[in-house]
Amino acid sequence: MIYLQYLLVGAGCLFFIVGTLGLLRFPDTFTRIHAITKADNLGLGLLMLGLLPSTQSVPQALKLVLIWLLVLAASATASYLIAHYVKAKSPDALPHAAETASEEQD
Amino acid sequence: MHFFVSVLLTSSLWWILTEGAQAWWIGGPAVLLASYVATRLHHTDSQRINWLQVPLFALFFLAQSLKAGVDVAVRTLRIRPAINPGTLYYRTSLPPGTARYLFGSIVGLFPGTLCTDFDHDQVILHVLDTNADIAMDCRKLERRIARLFSLPPTPVPPTSRNKETQS
């Protein structure tokens, strides 16, 4: 069991690192939001799963799950708010519509 | 009525967060404030969650989150980040209100999509890779949300800017 926990927590940390790497590597605000929200959501989920067997009481276990759910709700809302703000501030920030963009692609 | 339900819910939230109800001198005011805000922001539309559908929806959500995280991780770790960003004007059949807002929030955690705005019946999505069939994934999520709220599935009129509905 402990090895499974190591594996889950390790994988969780890896996704956090990758999310941060995406934040550094991706070119603009929108793509960065993609990287950080999705990778961290999964990373925290794995971390929570890995820590669950180590909890000592039911409220403690519930608390772990709750933290994940709260972060999920917060990151889903925040990602929309940031994207919405960037779009409202500079309407040209969004790339072309999907069809034209895929046609232009070589 | 809504206020009391809210107090009950936020109290149990505090109970979980403090692992057995401690520090009520912080929790009490926080619970009351949160319930007050929740009541003020509460808008009455006829959309109610069908709680029987929640476990199925949660499973779908978990699978998609896993896919989204792995997808974005693989794209990040390429030597040249494998992205081809674009915009998708997605026509939704979900009625305005809770269901549509839930769609906008959740789509941000799904593979390659990010909601930026609502415009009438269109949801303006930023997509990470325009080569992926995003509209198809959105349609799937939409159907799940419609089931979650027990909404009747409505046929979607095709638009020139929506790949999936054209076919």
Automatic annotation (TrEMBL), chain A:
Record field: transmembrane: 6-24, 65-86
List the Pfam families hit by this protein, alphabetically: PhaG_MnhG_YufB
Name the UniProt key words of this record, in alphabetical order. Answer: Membrane, Transmembrane, Transmembrane helix
A GO MF label: sodium:proton antiporter activity
Designated name of the protein:
Na+/H+ antiporter subunit G
Instruction: Supply the InterPro entries for this chain.
Output: PhaG_MnhG_YufB
UniProtKB/TrEMBL annotation, chain B:
User: Where does this one sit in the cell?
Assistant: Cell membrane
Q: Which InterPro entries match?
A: Cation_antiport_E (IPR002758)
Tell whether Membrane is among the UniProt keywords. yes
The UniProt entry's coiled-coil ranges are: none
Q: Which domain of life is it from?
A: Bacteria
A single GO CC term for this protein reads: plasma membrane
| MF-aspect GO terms | monoatomic cation transmembrane transporter activity
Arranged from A to Z, the UniProt key words for this protein are: Cell membrane, Membrane, Transmembrane, Transmembrane helix
How is the protein disposed in the membrane? Multi-pass membrane protein
The family database entries (Pfam families) matched by this protein are listed as: MNHE
Which family is this protein grouped under? Belongs to the CPA3 antiporters (TC 2.A.63) subunit E family.
Q: What is this protein called?
A: Cation transporter
Q: Which organism is it from?
A: Aliidiomarina soli
Taxonomic lineage of the native organism: Bacteria, Pseudomonadati, Pseudomonadota, Gammaproteobacteria, Alteromonadales
